[in-house]
Design goal:
With 200 residues, this protein is mainly alpha-helical. It has one domain (2-196). Helix content is 75%, strand content 0%. It has 9 helices and no strands. The N and C termini lie far apart (77 Å).
């Protein structure tokens, strides 16, 4: 379950945190090491409210060129920070908490960075004229909202869309880097008269 939550947080740290904190506050179906049980319910509700309010601001401000770079930088900082806490909290494995925190932070940061790059390319694409980052970020937020409840209901249901989201981001990132590479220069072939008319 920690992997599903880490992917969701990487896609949108605010939506992922909101869903996770709300489920931990109002249900007892969140598995893990017991960290959520140690946090007061009021604190979990407060975290859910803050994250829930931050999510629409993130989507709205990402629409404007003036604010989009700063908003995405904040998201790329928030994602690994939240994942570093949630990964050990959700884990029921024997891995050291420090290793789980580091792995969760790295995965969430990588996903957030790939999403930022994909959204930036989409905003420059003629197919997204007038929409900017919004389609990519809305798709990521929707996926982040869905995969955590699906993973809690049945782990496989959460892992499948999480894996598809990661695979899509990796594919888009690789394709974008290939498209950004300059075309190889072709050397002009100078045909000499001797080559054009070889001696018999």
């Amino acid at each position: 379950m920690e992997l599903v939550a880490t992917v969701a947080i990487g896609l949108n740290p605010y939506v992922g945190t909101f869903i996770l904190a709300a489920l931990a506050a109002f249900t007892r179906h969140v598995p893990g090491s017991g960290l959520f049980d140690a946090v007061p319910r009021e604190m979990l509700i407060f975290i859910a409210l803050v994250a829930g309010l931050a999510a629409p601001f993130d989507l709205v401000l990402s629409k404007f060129v003036r604010f989009a770079p700063r908003v995405r930088r904040v998201a790329q900082i928030a994602a690994p920070a939240v994942a570093a806490v949630s990964a050990p909290a959700l884990s029921q494995s024997d891995w050291p908490p420090v290793a789980l925190a580091a792995a969760g932070a790295l995965i969430a940061w990588s996903i957030a960075a790939m999403l930022t790059a994909a959204a930036a390319r989409a905003s420059r694409s003629l197919a997204w004229v007038g929409l900017g980052h919004v389609p990519a970020l809305m798709a990521a937020a929707t996926t982040a909202a869905c995969i955590i409840p699906l993973g809690l209901a049945r782990l496989g249901l959460g892992l499948v869309p999480a894996a598809l989201a990661v695979a899509t981001l990796v594919g888009v990132t690789v394709a974008g880097r290939r498209a950004a590479q300059p075309a190889p220069r072709t050397r002009a072939l100078h045909v000499t008269s001797h080559q054009a008319h070889p001696a018999r």
